[in-house]
Amino acid sequence: MKITVIGAGSAQFSLGLVKDLCLTEGLSGSHVTYMDIDQERLDMIYELGSRYGRQIGSKLTFDKTTDRAAALQGADFVINTAYVLGHIVEAQMRKLAADKYGYYHAGGFFGAYHQLRLMLDVAQDMEKICPDAWLIQVGNPVFDGSTLITRETSIKTCGLCHGHYHYMEVAQTIGIDPDKVTWQAPGFNHNIWLTHFIYEGKDAYPLIDEWVATKGEEYWRTHVAKQTHDAQMSRGAIHQYHMYGLMPIGDTVRRGGWWYHTDIVQKKRWFGEPWGGPDTHLARPYFVANLEKRIAEYKRWAGDPKVDLVQAVGTQKTREQIVPIIDGLVNNNEGYFQVNVPNHGALPGIPDDVVVEVPAIVNQKGIQPVRVPKLPAKIMIERIYPDWLEMERELLAFKTGDQAAMLYGVLDHHQTKSYDQAVEMLDEMLNLPEVKEIEDWEGMKRISEAMKYPMKL
After folding, report:
1. How many other C-beta atoms lie within 10 A of the C-beta of residue 453?
2. Which residues are catalytically annotated?
């Protein structure tokens, strides 16, 4: 197999991906092509991946390129992990929104348009260069981007996330063995709900209720998160469980209603100490700093041939689903996975051309979604349908260039106090030097010029 990694300089995926490939016997002899526009990061991950492979005795081969078309040539699988704006630019945008316009740690005001452009460009390039390849989309927004790709191209695609693994945190916190749990959590990406939670053959939801009644208050009073995304058993998560009758899982917890996110006091009330969940002015810098530390460590490893990468990285597979899914499709090593694919009846109440996150069986026949029961009406009406419509508005703005649709997302934000506030902030966001620089990249649409909306009335 030829496996191409777009955005290979990612601190999140690439090294773990190589480790999983090296430890998967059925993919021995595969070729990995790293592609990134950042030459320094590209050189770093190429050095680490190829050295790890040699040290562990793998038959994998590697090359690297900044040319996307060359990277796609002959590919059997394309893994897109790229993030166009990057965490630093995102932080600058959040700071501008807070300092000048009074939005508490809010982002994404004009949607993921640069990211969607890249996702669609990759898929359209694949149609021309490697039309039979699978695209595995791991860069966000998985929900919006995967839906766009499957509507606009013929490429076989599967979106992946790892938020569903937080069911294990539920089990561990209430004192049961996650390996003995049978679970199911369908919905949309970052909007999934624990419909089945079975422990040793019995419904384990009563164990959650018992934990809430006897240990919840003490946990919320004393628990200090060790990671920014440690919010699965927070007061906010349990509050949503009591509102909807099912536990929200993973990134679903950090979303919810606007009332969880008005300021840092409320954030800490609902999502705990010390950061108030992952989306605060305290958590995001800490999260980004850790990514930067990881990259710095990778650079040190890459520059020091004496570093034993097998010892540093280990020989235990990650929990990521990417390589096991490739192995299932290629070698018929059947597995049960959580995937994002077009609905086609898997989740009742959702159109076939909307990508849903559901369980699936993967083997040489392909990725076969499992039909799941309909989610409760309250979840559908208050959480699933609004998320679907927000995605449709974003894709409409992206496809038509209607900046008024982009503006609507800002106007609809709970912290927007006036029409003029929304217009002025969106205009300033679109004209940030970092954003305009990215729009000038080859193949990127100049969004701020192509889209028009009424500035003032």
Report:
1. 16
2. 162, 251
